[in-house]
Fold these 2 entries.
Entry 1:
Amino acid sequence: MVESDARPTGAVSMGQETGMAATTTSPDYLTTREVAALLRVRERKVYELAAAGEIPCRRLTGKLLFPRLEIEAWLSGGPADAPQERTPAPDVIAGSHDPLLDWAIRESGSRLATLFDGSLDGLERVGSRQAIAAGMHVYEPANRGWNTDHVAQRLGGEPVVLVEWARRRQGLIMAPATAREVRSIADLRGRRLVQRQAAAGAGLLLQHLMAAEALAMDEVDLLADVMRTETEAAAAVALGRADAAPGLEAMARQFGLAFLPTIEERFDLLVDRRAWFQPPMQRLLGFCRTDAFQAKALELGGYDLRDHGQVHWNGP
């Protein structure tokens, strides 16, 4: 088909990831003030043009941003929505850590680098051209769905595709002794709990489930250290540093730990459409059609691949 410590491993250096020098001198997106200076008008006029749909723009959390290449085409008299040459992103898969995805990237020989630091982090990296793809599992309570609204809000006008990777059993990873006493989310009160980064889908889901059980975050003992991947979260429990961690059945099985399921989640890959057809992604996608891939999912446990490859969002 088509989360690591403070310095994620397996990817390129931060200087390589962000292309900081190029961004400083030639930003991909302009602010309202910058566009007003460019057009030599007041900012109010820029807002009026955007509201009337007369100037290319994106809206993110209430803020207007203007794609530089589209603004240049608009100023030159060409159609604002004409295809523009996009800066190629590095061959990096960012976003949420998934054991099956991590394994497939290596086993396929795709030579894709990884930078797993949470679903929302991956969404931003794809949007800012720092990665060609990102794993996502962000629960959206309003529609009881996954990922789509976040992609539509952040990348609604971008040529990206959101494709299902797998359904996964998400829940609480615990030591066997703890599992005999913890039968629900509410039973976590007063216990040591693994902390995930703010951008992690597992952490966001846990907050929602705790709220549903009227369990406040200050009623659990969060570890001071942030665990950024599924592996780190499970390892913290296995080493006795925490009583429980939000995580996957696959990781509980790998560490010989108990597992309390809470929800079946949808894990998607958000992929730049151009990168989809390039050799690194094609090697990964081709490998996912093999018997070895299916066998590994079965071995890990907690995966349902029946809708693997189903498209849930396709940008313009």
Entry 2:
Amino acid sequence: MEPRIFAGPPAAGGPESLADHAARLGLVPRGSAAEATIPVIEASGLLGRGGAGFPVGRKWRSVAGQAGGAPAVLVNGAEGEPLSSKDRTLMRLRPHLVLDGALLAADAVGADRIAIYVGSAHRDARDSIERALVERRDIRLPVQLFAAPATYVAGEESAAVHFVNAADARPTVTPPRPYERGIDGRPTLVQNVESLANAALIARFGDAWYRGVGRSSTPGSALVTVSGSDRDGVREIEIGTPIGELAEVAGAGRDPRDRQAVLLGGYFGGWVSAERGWGLPLDPVELRDAGSAFGAGVVAFLGHDRCGVRATARIMDYMAGQSAAQCGPCVFGLRAIADATAGLANGTAARDDLARIERWSQQLAGRGACRHPDGAVGQLLSSLRVFGSEWEIHQRRRTCSREGFRSFAVPVVREKVA
């Protein structure tokens, strides 16, 4: 688990200063040198860390090749995923690495404006970025900081652009997409902060350096937020690290029998049983091929004393409450599913609630104005697979087999590097 982004001074020392950052890493390529980095980023195999896992180099090239005026760069640090704290931790501890990536991207795609979009609830991260901007005298283009609303959908790339343009953080679903026409109608590169930090390192040390870490076909390292273990927090791992190995390091157990299940990717991700998941590699490509998701880098372990049905009901209620309120499937469909799921969880279910949520989930997929309902029903369907017998108990007996149940609460955010 060799660190890369978090190499350098210990987390206890707080944000790295510009002087220490420059002394440790040197200067990031700028100007024409930055323009030559797109092929290097492409060759590195770097995948985006915002959840979709899209190749970063390809995304930069698509923006650089657009007509319609100088592009803009939107640095996405909204991080609305309740179980993730990796992005805010990165911005708090390594703000200059994030800014390096933003400046590199701007030069590479020919942008003349940078918007930095940080979750309004992430005050330490925002303060760190603001202080870093004051230190930077090498910035010669407009940089504006925006406070992203504390909503789940606010971090979706079209929602972020919509907020910068119109102070409305709801996704827009009609083409053109942001890379074609985004901020002020310009081609816009929307990139997650961890992706930019990695790009800044690759520009310094090369694509071969980046590919030198990793245990599977996908190269590099990644930040993950671990919860449900003895040592929760943000960790930097080699991509391809088995879930079981991470569990042992984090104090979640050495054996799959030590945990009941694992939630991967966050609320937009899905459940896998511990038995199946222990050997799975934490690799965006391999997890996708296995029917799971790396998503926002969330790895949440569920103990045997907790109920998967009730955990899922809590998530579904949250997702229904985070609707962008732009279409019936999201506003009414998700709420109906969440209410029926809550009934199953708390022992007040109607006779056919389990059959109804299964049917509604199949009907809702693909019908929303944005992907929010798709993520929610994907989460539910994974729970029905993993905790099938428990769902049946809740339906038939209106009780829970997990007598030692404790609620699967959203954990307090721990801005620490474990």
